[in-house]
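User: Sequence recovery, please. Input:
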């Protein structure tokens, strides 16, 4: 028994000794933290709880050519109060006047707000939310309320600001306007005007303000003023014409839907200046809807097909190896070139025809024969002519993401004896739609090749920071004689050639149709044929004002795929609408015109916008853009998804239902 007691005592002594050593260690650590490392840990606490918080600058606006707003950043504010910071005397003096002001604005009794704020003060609540998502006008009104007007330190005012990028024109030109999004390496991944000029002009300079963390993701200002004031970004004025953009967008959308095509683009450019008046890029979703998916016009290089025949034809004319009357034998629509047959679309062929007629009927054999016969011995001569027109280089436009052209030459991996005749009718090379259009624009512009331009000016309010003028790439692409012959052929293509379906006595057009096989190297091509349809040209013929290109990928072959049928009507519709809706004249009619129906419609919309703040209105029957504007400016932070375009046919939330923050409202449009 004595032995056991002695063993137990030894264990107790050992445990007591360990606890004593552990206590000494804890004491030593506390003293070390307090006196030796105290400054270090206090700095870490300060860094964690007190920081210079970034105040985002307001992003600059993007405007159309006429000053219409295309993109803007709308500031929204959350207002809260630190119920603890005010001195007791100050708090008691101003609490009732503050609650009276809150009652007058928010609607609940003054006693309700007084009870809630006093409870927050009693509970040491340093963040009591008063209101969310108010606009700047209401924010100014709020910060002038009693107590809050004394600022962050004396009055406990807490202001949280966020900005939301809005697009007043909806999906029209949305992809071209773009927005800034970054990858992991900080590179802009969304090409467009907003992305291209974000860093230089639109983004502005962020500010700084010292704040203290008072709760989960809640920060309270420690000063009434910013250490660094944010500087708003500059405003960018584009060359986009809202009327022409609307015409181009809907003309393309209608044809894509009709032919169930994969995607397409259209660009309208002012001939003399190179200013882009309209650009639309629409891609098909899995549900069969179309939206501005990618900037195909700028970034997608592909084989242009027959629209390149104009370049080949011009090269032969300029080198004087042919004339428009030169006879070329197109056989019976099938001819062997270096072990490979080239076909014409016309069954039975065209026989012996002039070079000009070969262009009018878009004979693949005709152009392949001309180029092969006169350049096969020296293909570099043909390639050098193409290079002289800068077709082998990007245009160097301001928007990020321009596709690279691909013009092969002898010595390249893809060069063969068949390369030259293939290039003559637009295969074995690649261009973007915008690069093709720039060349056609030069034909319309008396031979002067100008760089396509998206910007007119950058401004800070009314002060011009920078202006953008016409930039000439090449003064003359060819002789006056060659230019005249090419323009005559382009006119006749519409009058009596592949584009004769587009001819109209009311207005004149000139251009070239194009139909190219795509993905023809795929094994399933014969079972699932895929084409790219295009039309590029200008109007009016006599004094060209606008050039235009339309490209549509993978139209349904069951409906049609030739350029004259698929893209030509889009070109004609655009030209016709510009003639009727935007007459080519310098006369300006008076704008002092009143329409009773328009004013009645506006009054009804305005009254709806004033009435509904948190209650779901009935937006069925409203234009999509009006419905979006109404819902996105309500006093609740909701998400609006638009399915389709045009007029609203259905809404996911019933009329008169109370909306909640972060709720999603789906609008279906025709």
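Assistant: Recovered sequence (670 residues):
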């Amino acid at each position: 028994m004595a032995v056991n007691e002695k063993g137990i005592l030894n264990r107790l002594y050992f445990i007591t000794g360990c606890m004593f050593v552990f206590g000494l260690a804890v004491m030593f650590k506390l003293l070390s933290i307090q006196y030796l490392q105290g400054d270090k840990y206090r700095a870490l606490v300060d860094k964690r709880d007190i920081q210079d918080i970034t105040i985002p600058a307001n992003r600059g606006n993007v405007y159309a050519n006429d000053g219409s707003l295309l993109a803007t950043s709308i500031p929204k504010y959350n207002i809260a109060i630190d119920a603890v910071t005010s001195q007791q005397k100050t708090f008691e003096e101003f609490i009732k006047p503050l609650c009276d002001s809150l009652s007058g604005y928010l609607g609940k009794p003054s006693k309700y707000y007084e009870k809630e704020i006093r409870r927050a003060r009693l509970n040491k609540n340093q963040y009591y939310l008063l209101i969310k998502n108010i606009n700047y006008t209401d924010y100014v009104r709020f910060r002038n309320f009693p107590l809050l007007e004394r600022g962050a330190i004396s009055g406990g005012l807490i202001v949280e600001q966020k900005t939301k990028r809005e697009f007043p024109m909806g999906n029209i030109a949305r992809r071209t306007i773009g927005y800034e999004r970054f990858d992991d390496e900080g590179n802009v991944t969304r090409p467009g005007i907003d992305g291209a000029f974000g860093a230089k002009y639109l983004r502005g300079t962020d500010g700084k303000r010292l704040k203290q963390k008072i709760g989960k993701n809640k920060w309270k200002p420690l000063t009434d003023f910013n250490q660094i004031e944010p500087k708003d970004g500059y405003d960018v004025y584009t060359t986009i014409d809202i009327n022409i953009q609307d015409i181009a967008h809907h003309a393309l959308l209608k044809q894509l839907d009709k032919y169930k095509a994969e995607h397409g683009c259209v660009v309208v450019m002012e001939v003399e200046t190179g200013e882009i008046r309209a650009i639309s890029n629409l891609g098909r979703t899995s549900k069969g809807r179309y939206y501005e998916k990618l900037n195909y016009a700028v970034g997608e290089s592909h084989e242009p097909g027959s629209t390149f025949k104009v370049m080949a034809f011009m090269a032969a004319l300029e080198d004087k190896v042919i004339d428009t009357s030169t006879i070329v034998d197109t056989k019976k629509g099938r001819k062997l070139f270096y072990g490979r047959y080239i076909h014409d679309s016309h069954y039975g062929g065209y026989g012996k025809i002039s070079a000009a007629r070969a262009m009018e009927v878009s004979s693949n054999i005709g152009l392949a024969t001309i180029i092969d016969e006169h350049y096969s011995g020296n293909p570099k001569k043909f390639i050098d002519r193409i290079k002289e027109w800068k077709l082998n280089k990007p245009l160097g436009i301001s928007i990020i993401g321009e596709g690279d052209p691909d013009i092969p030459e002898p010595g390249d991996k893809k060069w063969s004896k068949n390369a030259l005749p293939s290039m003559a009718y637009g295969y074995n090379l690649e261009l973007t739609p915008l690069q093709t259009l720039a060349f056609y624009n030069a034909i319309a512009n008396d031979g002067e090749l100008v760089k396509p331009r998206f910007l007119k000016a950058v401004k800070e309010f009314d002060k011009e920071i920078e202006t953008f003028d016409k930039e000439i790439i090449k003064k003359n692409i060819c002789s006056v004689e060659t230019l005249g012959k090419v323009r005559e052929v382009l006119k006749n293509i519409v009058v009596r050639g592949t584009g004769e379906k587009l001819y109209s006595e009311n207005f004149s057009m000139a251009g070239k149709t194009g139909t190219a096989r795509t993905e023809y190297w795929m094994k399933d091509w014969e079972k699932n044929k895929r084409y790219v349809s295009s039309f590029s040209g200008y109007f009016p013929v006599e004094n060209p004002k606008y050039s235009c290109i339309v490209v549509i990928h993978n139209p349904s072959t069951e409906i049609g795929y030739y350029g004259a049928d698929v893209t030509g009507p889009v070109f004609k519709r655009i030209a016709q609408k510009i003639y009727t809706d935007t007459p080519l004249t310098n006369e300006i009619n008076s704008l002092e015109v009143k329409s009773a129906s328009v004013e009645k419609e506006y009054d009804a919309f305005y009254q709806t916008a004033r009435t509904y703040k948190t209650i779901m209105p009935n937006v069925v029957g409203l234009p999509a853009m009006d419905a979006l504007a109404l819902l996105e400016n309500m006093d609740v932070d909701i998400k609006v998804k638009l399915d389709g375009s045009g007029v609203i046919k259905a809404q996911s939330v019933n009329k008169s239902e109370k909306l909640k923050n972060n709720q999603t409202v789906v609008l279906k449009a025709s």
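The two ends are 98 Å apart (CA to CA).
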